[in-house]
Amino acid sequence: MAYTASSLRSSYRFLLRVCETGMCSPRYSDPMVVVYIQERDGAFTEVFRTEVVLNSLNPTWITKYTITYQFEIVQILLFRVFDIDTQFHNVEVKMLKLEEQQSLGEASCALSEIVSKPNRSLILDLVQREESVPSTHSQHQGKLTVHAEECFSSKNTAEMTLKCLNLESKDLFSKSDPFLVISKVVESGMSIPVCKTEVSKNDLNPTWKPVFLNIQQVGSKDSPLVIECFNFNSNGKHDLIGKVQKSLADLEKLHTGREGENLFLPTPVGHDNQNKALKSKLFVEKYSETVQYTFLDYLAAGFELNFMVAIDFTASNGNPRLPDSLHYIDPSGRLNAYQKAIYEVGEVLQFYDADKHFPAWGFGARPIDGPVSHCFNLNGSSNYCEVEGIRGIMMAYTSALFNVSLAGPTLFGHVINRAAMIASQSLANDAKKYFVLLIITDGVITDLQETKDALVKASDLPLSILIVGVGGADFKEMEILDADKGERLESSTGRVASRDIVQFVPFRDVQNGPSVVQELLAELPSQFLAYMRSREIKPCS
């Protein structure tokens, strides 16, 4: 088996091995493994069958398979082991009817559980489903070892220097301020940003600084990419100047041939399907490929992603006891927006955190008999901020709603500085940790400059910040914090952030489309790698 990732794609070979039989059968078996993956609707789809290993209780299968690993989502794999009856040994494995074979047990795990193990091996207990074995018998059927090996080719990184000529001016009294966004096109046809350039101010013939695209990120050199050129606007509503759709292989050819590609503008809906070609052209000034360490190399070396969460308890959320409140706990068990964001983000990141002890804070509320706090421990403790597991966060959140008074204003600076302090202490101890802070909020922040200062300072630390906006507030200022929407942040002293560490998404924009997790986590592997490379930290160090 092998896997590849979405924001991060990597080719792996999985070796399946059953150790420690524990089988009730007195004879040797002829086992085969069938692998399934869980779809969005919860159903399992078969994706792969191994060969049959004859006469063995401790088989090692050789057949391998490639599946798509996506960092942004939890992918559940199901492994079912069957004893193939002798009369079917000459039948192709894909033609075998599984209902005619004896089940030897099954096991399941998330794909991320395998890739996050330092040795890339995961041992699973094989169990027999209740309906297929009498309740008086032991359910333990042995163990299944799944081992992953990364393919060398997945480490290739393309470095490109891009320029445009004859861009259209979108500003009334000056030239355009262009920047590029490079997106991959996923199977559904949706474009997901994976890379962007800086803003080139007042320039119709810009040459941007080199961009680095790990070929993992886009699938292969032949996978389609959309390169969009925008004119930067400080309000976050950037004007599309033009776009092209090319693969990395196409871009390499443009460089070799010293040719430019005309940008185009999509035809409005309702008009004919011909795109409007522009005089503006995109050129590839430099194209080279090098081998770089991958996100998964760091995981294999023992690096972790440590999850932290901060929740907005300001009064604008509404009375938690009333159904129209964003903090309302529905007796039916239906999750509110805060709970859903915690669960979906935490569910993905928990596999990359070894002890699953998560710092959790609230802000903008008045704890019992105390002043308004802009960073209080969600568990109610005055000494420690950690809770155990995603369930621990959910329980602490629910408990806090009945033990604090919602207040205000909405300040981010305190929780960002608290998270930065933890990251700084970890860095001082040379720990192999990278921190991810999830901030969930319903309102406009009132300490924008203080927040910018905190973010600029934190950009030098092993820290990324994910912000989910819930409710119907105006989130323009959040867009400013996310450098995807424009320029790098600048502090009150004029210092510019060393890298982009913020990703923001309004919850309402993604409820009926891509999940919050995919939107928020799309850039996280790239942010992790940008930090490691900027400090020249290697996986083996």
From TrEMBL:
Q: Where's it found, cell-wise?
A: Cell membrane
Which keywords has UniProt assigned to this entry? Calcium, Cell membrane, Lipoprotein, Membrane, Metal-binding, Plant defense, Repeat
Gene Ontology BP, a term: cellular response to calcium ion
Q: How does it sit in the membrane?
A: Lipid-anchor
Q: Assign the protein's first listed, main location to one coarse class.
A: membrane
GO MF term list: calcium-dependent phospholipid binding; metal ion binding
Q: Where is the VWFA domain?
A: 306-524
What region holds the C2 domain? 1-124, 140-264
Keyword Transmembrane in annotation = no
Give a GO cellular-component term: plasma membrane
SMART domains cross-referenced by the UniProt entry = C2, VWA
Source superkingdom? Eukaryota
Which family, according to UniProt? Belongs to the copine family.
What name has this protein been given in UniProt? C2 domain-containing protein
| Protein species of origin | Gossypium mustelinum (Cotton)
